[in-house]
Amino acid sequence: MNAIDPPLFGLSQRQPPANLEAEQALLGALLANNKAYERVSEFLAPEHFADAVHGRIFEAIARRIEAGQLADPVTLRSTFEHSGLLDEVGGPAYLAQLLSAMVGIINAGDYGRTIYDAWIRRQLIDLGEVTVNRAFGAEPELDGSSQIEAAEQALFDLATRGGAEGSAMSFETALTMAIDTAAKAFERDGKVSGLTTGLTDLDNKTGGLHPSDLLILAGRPGMGKTALATKIAYGAAQALLNEARVDNANAEAKQAVVIFSLEMSAEQLATRLLAEEARVSSDRIRRGEIGQKDFDNFVAVSRRISRLPLVIDDTPAITLSAMRTRCRRLKRTRGLALIVVDYLQLMRPAAGTKPDNRVLEISQITQGLKAIAKELAVPVLALSQLSRAVESREDKRPQLSDLRESGTIEQDADAVMFVYRDEYYLQMRMPKPTDMKDADFQTALDDWQRKMELVHNKAELLLAKQRHGPTGTIQLFFEAEFTRFADLDTQHE
Question: What is this structure's pTM?
Answer without folding.
Answer: 0.65
